Input
Amino acid sequence: MWPIVWDWLNFAIRWVHVITGIAWIGSSFYFIALDLSLKKHDGLPEGVSGDTWQVHGGGFYHMQKYTVAPASMPEELTWFKWESYATWISGFFMMCVLYYGSSELFLIDRNIYDLSQWQAIGIGFGGMILGWVLYNFLCNSPIGKNDNLLSVLVFIFVVAIGWGFLQVFSGRGAFVHTGALIATIMSANVIMIIIPNQKKTVAALLAGKAPDPALGMQAKQRSMHNNYLTLPVLFLMLSNHYPLAHSTQYSWIIIALVLVIGVVIRHFFNMHHAKKGEPHWTWLVATICFIIIMWLSQAGPVNNEETASSSHAPTETELKLANAPSFDMVRDIVISRCSMCHAQEPVWEGLTITPKLVVLEEDADIVRHAELIYKHAGRSNAMPPGNLTSVTMEERDILAKWYEEAIGSPRHFLW
Ligand code: HEC
Output
């Protein structure tokens, strides 16, 4: 595949995913705050459980909530569901392009577990589906009647899943899969529970029957889970840029602490929007958890005895890259211009860990990261930062041509 087109596709999906994620989380935060701010008082129309006034964009809004449904259904009704579905779909595409397409680079870490590409995909995708099935089972079991007990079990469940993924995937792959699993639960809550229950309620009303209140209660419970899980998901998704979070010895405890932080911060805003006070202790708890996270992350890398390159069987492309006639020049460039920073133990002043965990020391490291080298130093001047090691244009050209020739990619994709 042409690496330049692939890279842009990757960026486009990421862009869409962030946009849909903002739309989903934004509307969900808005509705939670709106719901909590509704006030009950005399003189409300029949069926209205509360109302509130809001001002935005030059006008005033008078919001009223019909708890079950209005006496007659409005002709036009806006459903908020595509924000969630589109976020899941775009996220899934990104997972395929990035983590399943380049699983050797981002998902599999042979120092942790020797998985084939298909095994890794099976565990990742299967885990997401199984996660939802187990979660849903837990919520529908008798335990689901006790909100607090259920919340504690969901918490333990997510941490256990995170721990499990960390035993088989790279730290980065494990964190993103834990995030994806929570996001799958959240999206499935919308598509499988919240929206169908709402539809059943509407159908019962249209048929002139009293809707089953259990439907509303179930939807509310799932909505509450979604509310509290939002912030941890965002942390887990963004964490792939932060190796200290996902690839240190206590990363699984970091997941647990992030869940706590997410929950207490949401709790603060829920209380604030409901005008039930300002529980400032939540910020103290969040800060303490964050300090513990920073402290734990100092424990250092997981199982660093063997380097990944030594146990990795080279792929066909990697062999081509290593045997290319220009490889000697490429090695010289990388060793003289990149390795001082991109080493297991960087010698560059001020660098304590390998940037982005991209080690460029051995031949195997260089061929393994060929595509990244191509994009960051061959076809762009992103690396080294500020061209600190004075890479020349000729050298960049050598890096680019080496990769293009080995994988048979044209220099330009349209002409
Ligand atoms: C002065 C130190 C330094 C040198 C020299 C250097 N890098 Fe980097 N590199 C960094 C830092 C710091 C980052 C992390 C940047 C960030 O956080 O966005 C990085 C990140 C990267 C990444 C990962 C980018 C990503 O977002 O995944 C690649 C690939 C990379 N460098 C390749 C190279 C190559 C190839 C060279 C030599 C031509 C090189 N670097 C030279 C410091 C350096």
Notes: Strands lie at 48-56, 59-66. The radius of gyration is 26 Å. The pocket of heme C is lined by residues 337-338, 340-342, 348, 355-356, 358, 372-373, 376-377, 383-385, 388-389, 391 (CB under 6 Å). The mean pLDDT is 91.
